[in-house]
Amino acid sequence: MSIFTRMLGQPDIATIPYSPDSMEGLVARWVQWGASVKDEINPISDLTGENADKCQPNDVWFLAGCFGGAVHRKCTIPANKKLLVPVFNMWFTEHYEPPNLSKAHGFMKLNGKNIELDKVFTHKPFIVRGVWGNPVTSSILEHEMRVGGLWKLLDALPTGKHELFFRGDDGEGFYVEAMYQIDVLP
Prior knowledge:
The protein has one domain (about 5-185). It is about 10% helix and about 40% strand. The chain has 2 helices and 10 strands. It has helices at about 5, 25-35, and strands at about 60, 70-80, 80-95, 105-110, 115, 120, 125-130, 140-155, 160-170, 175-185. The strands form 2 sheets. Strands 1, 3, 6, 7 and 8 form a 5-stranded mixed sheet that branches. The chain has a 5-stranded mixed sheet with strand order 2-10-9-4-5, with no helix packed on it. The radius of gyration is 16 Å and the shape is globular.
């Protein structure tokens, strides 16, 4: 796709230097996903979950954190999809120093059970091509980015209702928190 299609709000897929199903590849794809939807209907900006299905890939379901503070969302997802959860993450362009994530911490509970988190950092930069009005790059121009943080790739949830809660922070006062009520349909 071209810069003109991104101006019209059509997402573009960038090449990433990671296997698309590795954790690094998934988190790079997640950042591209966040840049693929304009702010008004972006799942990261969404407070209720009504936009959770926007631009979802075919092989995994991306959940969204938020840009700070707490959100409570309800969403319906299809069965047989793994879920990528961004408990706490920070993305940055080539013009900025990598954030210090040494103090970052977080936790996640699925149906009341604690889930161990993974630390993921993309040491190799990847290209993000956003649509006009996206909250990730604020631009339709290409941006070389990296991302780091606490993530979890969950196996597909069984059909039915589930509660997912996560909270993460930078250790210096900035935090994100999300409560998801998820209905998995067959």
